[in-house]
Specification:
Blueprint: E1 5-14, E2 17-27, E3 32-36, H1 43-50, E4 58-63, E5 66-67, H2 70-74, E6 76-79, H3 91-99, H4 108-114, H5 130-142, E7 148-152, H6 160-175, E8 179-184, H7 187-193, E9 196-201, E10 204-209, H8 211-218, E11 222-226, H9 231-235, E12 245-247, E13 250-255, H10 258-267, E14 276-278, H11 282-290
Parallel strand pairs: 3-8, 3-9, 6-7, 7-8
Antiparallel strand pairs: 1-2, 1-4, 4-5, 9-10, 11-13, 11-14, 12-13
Helix pairs in contact: 5-6
Bound molecules: adenosine-5'-diphosphate (ADP) and magnesium ion.
The site of magnesium ion (MG) has 5 residues, from α1.
Protein backbone atom coordinates (compact mmCIF):
# COMPACT_ATOMS: atom_id res chain seq x y z
CA UNK A 1 0.00 0.00 0.00
CA UNK A 2 1.24 3.47 -0.86
CA UNK A 3 2.18 5.50 2.23
CA UNK A 4 -0.25 8.31 3.06
CA UNK A 5 2.63 10.73 3.58
CA UNK A 6 6.17 10.62 2.23
CA UNK A 7 8.84 13.01 3.42
CA UNK A 8 11.86 13.29 1.16
CA UNK A 9 15.15 14.96 2.10
CA UNK A 10 13.44 17.75 3.97
CA UNK A 11 15.66 20.59 5.23
CA UNK A 12 15.18 23.90 6.98
CA UNK A 13 17.80 26.29 8.28
CA UNK A 14 17.54 29.28 10.59
CA UNK A 15 20.61 31.51 10.40
CA UNK A 16 23.32 29.09 11.46
CA UNK A 17 21.03 26.38 12.87
CA UNK A 18 20.15 23.37 10.75
CA UNK A 19 16.74 22.95 12.36
CA UNK A 20 15.86 20.05 10.04
CA UNK A 21 18.62 18.38 8.10
CA UNK A 22 17.73 16.09 5.15
CA UNK A 23 14.98 14.18 6.87
CA UNK A 24 13.17 11.37 5.04
CA UNK A 25 10.47 8.92 6.10
CA UNK A 26 7.19 7.33 5.01
CA UNK A 27 3.99 7.13 7.03
CA UNK A 28 1.57 4.28 6.49
CA UNK A 29 -2.12 5.09 6.56
CA UNK A 30 -3.97 4.53 9.83
CA UNK A 31 -0.98 4.39 12.13
CA UNK A 32 0.18 6.67 14.89
CA UNK A 33 3.56 8.04 13.87
CA UNK A 34 5.72 9.82 16.43
CA UNK A 35 8.56 12.29 16.15
CA UNK A 36 10.42 11.78 19.41
CA UNK A 37 13.23 13.98 20.59
CA UNK A 38 14.39 16.56 23.13
CA UNK A 39 13.72 20.30 22.98
CA UNK A 40 15.28 21.85 19.91
CA UNK A 41 15.54 18.53 18.03
CA UNK A 42 13.56 19.94 15.09
CA UNK A 43 10.20 18.29 15.74
CA UNK A 44 8.03 21.40 15.41
CA UNK A 45 9.90 22.57 12.33
CA UNK A 46 9.43 19.15 10.70
CA UNK A 47 5.75 18.82 11.55
CA UNK A 48 4.99 22.39 10.44
CA UNK A 49 6.56 21.72 7.07
CA UNK A 50 4.50 18.54 6.80
CA UNK A 51 1.38 20.54 7.64
CA UNK A 52 2.16 22.86 4.77
CA UNK A 53 2.38 25.94 6.97
CA UNK A 54 6.16 26.34 6.88
CA UNK A 55 8.06 26.33 3.60
CA UNK A 56 11.04 23.95 3.47
CA UNK A 57 14.38 25.18 2.11
CA UNK A 58 14.58 21.95 0.16
CA UNK A 59 12.95 18.57 0.01
CA UNK A 60 9.47 17.35 -0.63
CA UNK A 61 6.31 16.21 1.13
CA UNK A 62 3.95 13.90 -0.76
CA UNK A 63 0.38 13.17 0.28
CA UNK A 64 -0.93 9.99 -1.39
CA UNK A 65 1.86 10.32 -3.90
CA UNK A 66 1.29 13.96 -4.83
CA UNK A 67 2.97 17.14 -3.63
CA UNK A 68 0.89 18.81 -0.92
CA UNK A 69 -1.35 21.60 -2.18
CA UNK A 70 -4.24 23.66 -0.85
CA UNK A 71 -6.60 20.66 -1.08
CA UNK A 72 -4.32 18.83 1.34
CA UNK A 73 -5.22 21.39 4.01
CA UNK A 74 -8.86 20.32 3.78
CA UNK A 75 -7.85 16.77 4.59
CA UNK A 76 -5.81 17.41 7.70
CA UNK A 77 -6.49 18.56 11.24
CA UNK A 78 -3.86 20.43 13.18
CA UNK A 79 -3.27 20.93 16.88
CA UNK A 80 -0.47 23.46 17.31
CA UNK A 81 1.99 23.46 20.18
CA UNK A 82 0.69 26.86 21.29
CA UNK A 83 -2.84 27.82 20.33
CA UNK A 84 -4.99 30.63 21.66
CA UNK A 85 -8.64 29.79 22.25
CA UNK A 86 -11.28 32.48 21.91
CA UNK A 87 -12.14 33.88 25.34
CA UNK A 88 -15.54 34.57 26.90
CA UNK A 89 -17.21 31.75 24.98
CA UNK A 90 -18.01 28.20 26.03
CA UNK A 91 -16.68 24.91 24.78
CA UNK A 92 -19.94 24.33 22.88
CA UNK A 93 -19.77 27.77 21.25
CA UNK A 94 -16.16 27.14 20.29
CA UNK A 95 -17.11 23.88 18.60
CA UNK A 96 -19.95 25.64 16.78
CA UNK A 97 -17.68 28.45 15.68
CA UNK A 98 -15.08 26.08 14.22
CA UNK A 99 -17.69 23.78 12.66
CA UNK A 100 -18.93 26.74 10.63
CA UNK A 101 -15.53 26.94 8.89
CA UNK A 102 -15.99 23.59 7.16
CA UNK A 103 -18.38 22.54 4.39
CA UNK A 104 -19.02 19.11 5.87
CA UNK A 105 -18.10 19.05 9.56
CA UNK A 106 -18.49 16.03 11.81
CA UNK A 107 -21.56 16.10 14.03
CA UNK A 108 -21.09 17.92 17.34
CA UNK A 109 -22.32 14.87 19.23
CA UNK A 110 -19.65 12.68 17.69
CA UNK A 111 -16.88 15.15 18.46
CA UNK A 112 -18.12 15.64 22.02
CA UNK A 113 -18.16 11.87 22.48
CA UNK A 114 -14.72 11.15 21.00
CA UNK A 115 -13.06 13.92 22.99
CA UNK A 116 -15.01 13.43 26.26
CA UNK A 117 -16.29 17.01 26.34
CA UNK A 118 -19.76 16.40 27.72
CA UNK A 119 -18.97 17.43 31.29
CA UNK A 120 -17.32 20.67 30.26
CA UNK A 121 -19.49 21.57 27.30
CA UNK A 122 -20.94 24.72 28.92
CA UNK A 123 -17.71 25.86 30.52
CA UNK A 124 -16.00 29.10 29.54
CA UNK A 125 -12.73 28.44 27.70
CA UNK A 126 -10.89 30.54 30.29
CA UNK A 127 -11.89 28.05 33.03
CA UNK A 128 -10.47 24.96 31.38
CA UNK A 129 -7.65 22.97 32.97
CA UNK A 130 -4.62 22.08 30.85
CA UNK A 131 -5.99 18.62 30.05
CA UNK A 132 -9.47 19.92 29.20
CA UNK A 133 -7.96 22.53 26.94
CA UNK A 134 -5.97 19.88 25.03
CA UNK A 135 -9.14 17.80 24.65
CA UNK A 136 -10.92 20.79 23.16
CA UNK A 137 -8.00 21.52 20.83
CA UNK A 138 -8.04 17.92 19.64
CA UNK A 139 -11.79 18.23 19.07
CA UNK A 140 -11.22 21.31 16.92
CA UNK A 141 -8.61 19.41 14.92
CA UNK A 142 -10.97 16.50 14.16
CA UNK A 143 -14.10 18.54 13.33
CA UNK A 144 -13.45 18.32 9.56
CA UNK A 145 -13.07 14.50 9.83
CA UNK A 146 -9.50 14.78 8.62
CA UNK A 147 -7.58 11.89 7.09
CA UNK A 148 -4.53 12.95 9.07
CA UNK A 149 -4.24 14.78 12.39
CA UNK A 150 -1.06 16.52 13.45
CA UNK A 151 -0.47 16.98 17.18
CA UNK A 152 2.54 18.94 18.34
CA UNK A 153 3.48 17.96 21.91
CA UNK A 154 -0.16 17.47 22.87
CA UNK A 155 0.53 16.32 26.43
CA UNK A 156 3.45 18.54 27.43
CA UNK A 157 2.75 20.11 30.80
CA UNK A 158 -0.21 17.87 31.62
CA UNK A 159 -0.35 15.91 34.86
CA UNK A 160 -0.02 12.10 34.59
CA UNK A 161 -3.77 11.49 34.84
CA UNK A 162 -4.60 14.04 32.16
CA UNK A 163 -1.90 12.59 29.93
CA UNK A 164 -3.37 9.10 30.24
CA UNK A 165 -6.83 10.49 29.45
CA UNK A 166 -5.47 12.20 26.38
CA UNK A 167 -3.77 9.00 25.22
CA UNK A 168 -7.10 7.21 25.22
CA UNK A 169 -8.57 9.98 23.04
CA UNK A 170 -5.75 9.53 20.57
CA UNK A 171 -6.47 5.79 20.52
CA UNK A 172 -10.10 6.60 19.75
CA UNK A 173 -9.20 8.95 16.91
CA UNK A 174 -6.90 6.29 15.50
CA UNK A 175 -9.60 3.63 15.84
CA UNK A 176 -11.75 5.76 13.52
CA UNK A 177 -9.12 5.21 10.83
CA UNK A 178 -7.43 8.60 11.12
CA UNK A 179 -3.67 8.68 10.70
CA UNK A 180 -2.13 10.41 13.73
CA UNK A 181 1.20 12.21 13.58
CA UNK A 182 2.48 13.53 16.85
CA UNK A 183 5.59 14.98 18.37
CA UNK A 184 6.63 14.29 21.92
CA UNK A 185 9.60 14.32 24.21
CA UNK A 186 8.01 11.69 26.45
CA UNK A 187 9.44 8.28 25.68
CA UNK A 188 6.67 6.46 27.53
CA UNK A 189 4.10 8.26 25.41
CA UNK A 190 5.87 7.34 22.19
CA UNK A 191 6.30 3.75 23.29
CA UNK A 192 2.66 3.38 24.24
CA UNK A 193 0.94 5.25 21.43
CA UNK A 194 3.14 5.08 18.38
CA UNK A 195 3.22 2.28 15.87
CA UNK A 196 6.37 3.85 14.50
CA UNK A 197 8.74 6.44 15.91
CA UNK A 198 11.43 8.58 14.38
CA UNK A 199 13.97 9.47 17.04
CA UNK A 200 15.27 12.97 16.27
CA UNK A 201 18.18 15.02 17.54
CA UNK A 202 19.86 18.11 16.07
CA UNK A 203 17.62 18.05 13.01
CA UNK A 204 18.47 14.49 12.03
CA UNK A 205 16.65 11.20 12.37
CA UNK A 206 18.75 8.79 14.37
CA UNK A 207 16.45 5.80 14.24
CA UNK A 208 13.10 4.94 12.73
CA UNK A 209 10.96 1.87 13.38
CA UNK A 210 8.32 0.35 15.63
CA UNK A 211 9.34 1.04 19.24
CA UNK A 212 9.69 -2.63 20.18
CA UNK A 213 11.67 -3.44 17.03
CA UNK A 214 14.06 -0.60 17.82
CA UNK A 215 14.55 -1.91 21.32
CA UNK A 216 15.03 -5.49 20.15
CA UNK A 217 17.61 -4.33 17.68
CA UNK A 218 19.66 -2.39 20.22
CA UNK A 219 19.30 -4.40 23.41
CA UNK A 220 19.36 -8.05 24.39
CA UNK A 221 17.68 -8.92 27.67
CA UNK A 222 17.55 -6.54 30.59
CA UNK A 223 19.51 -3.45 31.46
CA UNK A 224 21.46 -3.37 34.71
CA UNK A 225 22.56 0.02 35.95
CA UNK A 226 24.90 0.71 38.83
CA UNK A 227 24.85 4.48 39.41
CA UNK A 228 27.88 4.77 41.72
CA UNK A 229 30.10 1.76 41.12
CA UNK A 230 33.19 3.24 42.80
CA UNK A 231 36.01 5.28 41.34
CA UNK A 232 38.35 2.45 40.39
CA UNK A 233 35.76 0.84 38.09
CA UNK A 234 35.31 4.13 36.27
CA UNK A 235 39.04 4.59 35.75
CA UNK A 236 39.58 0.94 34.84
CA UNK A 237 36.44 -0.53 33.29
CA UNK A 238 38.42 -3.57 32.09
CA UNK A 239 37.65 -5.26 35.42
CA UNK A 240 33.94 -5.20 34.61
CA UNK A 241 32.08 -8.03 32.83
CA UNK A 242 32.39 -7.77 29.05
CA UNK A 243 29.82 -5.55 27.42
CA UNK A 244 29.64 -3.21 30.42
CA UNK A 245 29.85 0.47 29.58
CA UNK A 246 30.45 3.60 31.60
CA UNK A 247 27.82 6.26 30.94
CA UNK A 248 27.36 9.42 33.03
CA UNK A 249 29.59 7.88 35.69
CA UNK A 250 27.39 4.80 35.95
CA UNK A 251 28.05 1.23 34.89
CA UNK A 252 25.49 -0.09 32.43
CA UNK A 253 25.23 -3.51 30.95
CA UNK A 254 22.60 -5.48 29.15
CA UNK A 255 22.33 -9.18 29.65
CA UNK A 256 20.02 -12.01 28.72
CA UNK A 257 21.31 -14.08 31.68
CA UNK A 258 20.29 -12.05 34.71
CA UNK A 259 21.20 -14.41 37.54
CA UNK A 260 24.60 -15.28 36.15
CA UNK A 261 25.48 -11.63 35.63
CA UNK A 262 24.19 -10.49 39.01
CA UNK A 263 26.09 -13.30 40.75
CA UNK A 264 29.23 -12.17 38.96
CA UNK A 265 28.67 -8.55 40.01
CA UNK A 266 28.20 -9.61 43.63
CA UNK A 267 31.67 -11.15 43.71
CA UNK A 268 33.26 -7.85 42.67
CA UNK A 269 33.82 -4.98 45.04
CA UNK A 270 31.32 -2.76 43.31
CA UNK A 271 29.18 -0.34 45.28
CA UNK A 272 25.71 -1.61 44.37
CA UNK A 273 23.73 1.23 46.01
CA UNK A 274 20.90 2.26 43.75
CA UNK A 275 21.36 -0.72 41.41
CA UNK A 276 18.43 -1.11 39.04
CA UNK A 277 17.38 -3.82 36.63
CA UNK A 278 14.79 -3.01 34.02
CA UNK A 279 13.60 -3.78 30.52
CA UNK A 280 15.24 -1.24 28.19
CA UNK A 281 12.94 1.52 26.98
CA UNK A 282 13.19 4.33 24.44
CA UNK A 283 14.79 6.59 27.04
CA UNK A 284 17.64 4.10 27.36
CA UNK A 285 17.87 3.89 23.60
CA UNK A 286 18.10 7.66 23.24
CA UNK A 287 20.86 7.71 25.84
CA UNK A 288 22.67 4.96 23.98
CA UNK A 289 22.35 6.75 20.64
CA UNK A 290 23.32 10.23 21.80
CA UNK A 291 25.09 9.82 25.11
CA UNK A 292 22.67 12.26 26.71
CA UNK A 293 19.32 11.91 28.39
CA UNK A 294 16.10 12.81 26.58
CA UNK A 295 14.92 15.07 29.39
CA UNK A 296 18.10 17.03 29.77
N1 LIG B 1 11.74 30.80 13.89
C1 LIG B 1 12.94 30.39 14.26
N2 LIG B 1 14.02 31.19 14.16
C2 LIG B 1 15.25 30.76 14.52
N3 LIG B 1 15.51 29.52 14.99
C3 LIG B 1 14.48 28.67 15.12
C4 LIG B 1 13.15 29.06 14.75
N4 LIG B 1 12.34 28.00 14.99
C5 LIG B 1 13.12 27.01 15.46
N5 LIG B 1 14.41 27.42 15.55
C6 LIG B 1 15.55 26.60 15.98
O1 LIG B 1 15.52 25.38 15.26
C7 LIG B 1 15.82 24.26 16.10
C8 LIG B 1 14.67 23.28 16.08
O2 LIG B 1 13.56 23.87 16.72
P1 LIG B 1 12.14 23.15 16.85
O3 LIG B 1 11.76 22.60 15.51
O4 LIG B 1 11.21 24.11 17.49
O5 LIG B 1 12.49 21.94 17.83
P2 LIG B 1 11.54 21.08 18.78
O6 LIG B 1 10.12 21.27 18.35
O7 LIG B 1 12.03 19.68 18.60
O8 LIG B 1 11.79 21.57 20.18
C9 LIG B 1 16.13 24.84 17.45
O9 LIG B 1 17.52 25.01 17.56
C10 LIG B 1 15.41 26.17 17.44
O10 LIG B 1 16.04 27.09 18.30
MG1 LIG C 1 8.41 21.87 19.42
Amino acid sequence: MEPIIQVRELSKRYQNVRAVDRVSFDIREGICFGLLGPNGAGKTTTIEMMEGILAPDSGQILFRGNPIDTRFKEKVGIQFQHTALPEFITVRETLQLFSAFYPDPRSMEEVIEICSLREIINRDNRKLSGGQRQRLLLALAIIPAPEVVFLDEPTTGLDPQARRNFWSLIERVKAEGTTVILTTHYMDEAQLLCDEVAIMDHGRILELDAPQRLLDRHFTGVLIRIPEPGERFITDPSQLPSGAEIRDGAVELTTARIDETVRRLLTMELNLDGLSIHKPNLEDLFLKLTGSSLRA
